[in-house]
Amino acid sequence: MGEEKNPAEQRERLRQNELKNSPMNALGDGMRQGNLADLVGGVSWKTTGVLILVLIGALVLGAVFDWY
């Protein structure tokens, strides 16, 4: 027979169904819950290194030419 689930499991199941059925809501949740580790985890270490070098270069150029 069907097992009764505790309230926490029911809430989680409802939350998952809501996220699955509402793409805009899921997008908003992803924007709020994302962090740098998620961003960097999706690219290679070489790409991450190049991005860091570009950011440092932009800061140096900004300091030299007083752009900020």
Automatic annotation (TrEMBL):
Residues 1-27 are annotated as: Disordered. Keywords: Membrane, Transmembrane, Transmembrane helix. Residues 1-18 have a biased composition (Basic and acidic residues). It comes from the Bacteria. The chain crosses the membrane at residues 48-67. InterPro entries: DUF6366 (IPR045946). This is DUF6366 family protein. It comes from Sporosarcina saromensis.
